[in-house]
Design brief:
With 226 residues, the chain is mainly α. Helix content is 74%, strand content 0%.
Length: 226
């Protein structure tokens, strides 16, 4: 091959003058930020798809992290799923806790139901995912759901205008717990098939509660309405 003097030197000059390719910088997040990011994506994934359809590979790929890093925060897919459920449950309970502590009894009940429906309207898929669960009879998932029901029941018994008079009445406690179950079933159905308006559902749930209380303790409802 014919050797052209200076060609090698020219190649070196061209290479050295070419713009250097900058390595892509990875955004480093602290532990809390990364965990929150994982939970946010997992909650959306598990709300949109069934548990079995969600892949850890897909979640890691979406966040551009390794599966090893994901498993550092959540050792299994089940751990990630349960952590997401706990977060959804806490948000729901907190939303229903901050209701007015004064005013007519029926208005206070309406305010609590309104807060509940407001949260569900904004997070319907996450709510259905929470209350229906996604791993069959998994005891930890069942514990999260049961915790929501118990906390909502306890919160109602503490804040309801009838609590002071009926707090130790077992029939009243049982009735409230049954009503919470009805609210759960009715709202899940409403999310899937909203045949009633939000206002109609709120009034239905309110009237059913007062009907229950009337059956358990008619003297209380009569006294409160006077």
């Amino acid at each position: 091959m014919l050797h052209v003097p200076g060609r090698t030197k020219l190649r070196r000059i061209v290479r050295s003058s070419a713009p250097a390719t900058r390595p892509r910088r990875r955004i480093r997040l602290d532990n809390d930020e990364r965990r929150a990011q994982l939970l946010a994506l997992a909650r959306k994934a598990f709300s949109d798809r069934s548990y079995d359809e969600v892949s850890i590979d897909d979640i890691a790929r979406e966040l551009k992290i390794s599966k090893g890093l994901l498993y550092h925060y959540f050792p299994t897919k089940r751990d990630l799923y349960v952590a997401g459920l706990r977060e959804i449950a806490e948000e729901l309970v907190q939303r229903c806790t901050n209701i007015p502590s004064d005013g007519p009894p029926i208005e206070r009940v309406r305010a609590g139901i309104e807060a509940y429906l407001d949260h569900i309207s904004q997070h319907s898929r996450a709510y259905v995912s929470l209350m229906r669960g996604g791993i069959g009879s998994d005891p930890e998932v069942a514990g999260v759901v049961e915790g929501v029901r118990s906390r909502l029941t306890d919160n109602f018994l503490e804040q309801t205008p009838f609590a002071a008079m009926l707090a130790k009445d077992v029939r009243f406690q049982t009735a409230v717990r049954g009503w919470i179950g009805f609210v759960e079933g009715a709202t899940i159905d409403w999310c899937a098939n909203p045949r009633l308006s939000r206002e109609e559902l709120r009034e239905l749930l309110t009237s059913i509660l007062f009907s229950i209380i009337t059956a358990v303790a008619p003297q209380i409802v009569k006294a409160q309405s006077q």
